[in-house]
Design a protein that fits this description.
Length: 194
């Protein structure tokens, strides 16, 4: 097992695509670990960037990096659009040799849960699997191995079911405990802080 930073230490979560090209890079803070894996947090206003896009966290959130290495579970608190859960399906999601960096290969599919309904013109509400079109396109472009696509397609459906049932760690109580730890750290950053 790779070393972990002390809770409260700033770190980076770096995603890449299957071909090694850079994807999302999130400023985070290490929070600790439990039976589900390692948890990192992103306070309100912290930066995320990828080629061609960037944003600042619209709400505090925590991300679980499970030992399976097949997904990263992000849970928001009081997100302005009601986004409670966002699961990035991935491959080789893990702690790197650098104790201040977690990494993973983004595998396109996402499982999303909104806490409130939204206008149908803005897209679905509730819980659903997102980016199936990107998954289909990239499966061909990157020539994903068939055993990995079969595994991740089954895992995606399983995760969607578990999110709907709010089984731990996809329940509110598990995430809220880590969101409370993030809040106690009192970290914040504005766009001007850099």
């Amino acid at each position: 097992m790779n070393r972990r930073p002390a809770p409260g230490t700033e770190m980076v979560f770096q995603w890449r695509k299957w071909d090694g090209s850079p994807h999302w890079r999130h400023e985070c803070v290490y929070l600790g670990a439990d039976e589900w894996g390692d948890w990192v947090g992103q306070p309100l206003g912290w930066h995320s960037i990828r080629p061609g896009a960037e944003f600042y966290a619209a709400a505090p959130n925590v991300t679980l990096v499970p030992p399976s290495g097949e997904f990263a579970l992000t849970i928001n608190r009081d997100h302005p659009f009601g986004m409670r859960i966002y699961i990035d399906l991935g491959w080789d999601v893990r702690w790197s040799d650098d104790p201040l960096m977690a990494t993973g290969i983004d595998m396109d599919l996402d499982v999303i849960r909104l806490e409130r309904d939204r206008d149908p013109a803005d897209g679905p509400s509730g819980t659903w699997v997102d980016d199936r079109d990107e998954w289909a396109e990239h499966s061909i472009r990157y020539d994903y191995p068939s055993d990995i696509t079969t595994r991740l397609e089954a895992l995606t459906l399983d995760l969607e079911t578990r999110v709907r049932a709010q089984e731990a760690p996809f329940d509110d109580a598990t995430a809220d405990a880590w969101l409370d730890r993030l809040e106690v750290l009192g970290l914040h950053r504005s766009r001007l802080d850099g």
